[in-house]
Design a protein that fits this description.
CATH topology of the largest domain: Rossmann fold
Shape: elongated
Strand order of the largest sheet: 2-1-3-4-5-6
Radius of gyration: 17 Å
Low-confidence stretches: 132-140
Helix content: 40-55%
Number of helices: 9
Distance between the termini: 33 Å
Number of strands: 6
Length: 205
């Protein structure tokens, strides 16, 4: 039996995905959530075989959630399911540890097959993403800490320092310190430059 955790911020989408997956008697959905940080917590608690992960999530985005799940619940394999076909998103998902990347226009059978394949230790990608399935090109320099990447993602989603602090459970001063460190490390000096950097490297969704 393949135990799956669904992560998507749209309830209707999760309901549809559950119906598709559970049409296969070898798959059971053990949980569903619409928030990246809670997805990490649920993966640690439920130990699903496969996490079906969207990229665009409130708070912690899917790439960062994947990176944390791979680190904290290594027995759970992550399969991305996204509307984003842009190569930086695919490359950064792979760099974070995802085992596959499907677009949301995949048909039902492709989705079921991808989940079972990832569970077996294989990788699966939508055919149109073949060019992006190697980690090359323009990877994110490994200079930002996981927390700094989270703060950068929230900055790029339009959150104020106070709003980012609330999402991450930090003080405003701590978020401001992280922001300063990001600017210093990347040598970028405006929010616009930070946003462009994050988009180029698949960190802004």
């Amino acid at each position: 039996m393949v135990r799956v955790l669904l992560v998507d911020d749209h309830t209707v989408v999760r309901r549809g995905l559950r119906k598709i997956l559970e049409s296969n008697p070898q798959i059971t959905v053990v949980g569903e959530i619409g928030d990246g940080a809670q997805a990490v917590s649920m993966a640690e608690t439920l130990h699903p075989d496969v996490v079906l992960m969207d990229i665009s999530l409130p708070g912690l985005n899917g790439v960062e959630a994947t990176r944390q799940i791979v680190a904290q619940a290594p027995d759970s394999k992550v399969l991305m399911l996204s509307m984003h076909a842009d190569e930086p998103y695919v490359r950064q998902s792979l760099a974070a540890g995802a085992k596959g990347y499907l677009l949301k226009d995949a048909d039902d059978q492709d989705l079921v097959e991808a989940v079972t394949a990832v569970h077996r230790g294989e990788t699966r990608f939508s055919a149109t993403l073949a060019r992006a399935t190697t980690i090359d090109g323009d990877p994110v320099p490994d200079v930002l800490s996981p927390r700094e990447r989270e703060v950068l993602s929230l900055i790029c989603s339009g959150r104020t320092n106070r709003e980012a602090a609330e999402v991450l459970g930090l003080s405003v001063n701590t978020v401001e310190t992280h922001r300063k460190h990001i600017i210093d490390k990347l040598d970028l000096h405006s929010t616009a430059e930070l946003v462009r950097y994050a988009i180029r490297h698949g960190l802004a969704v």
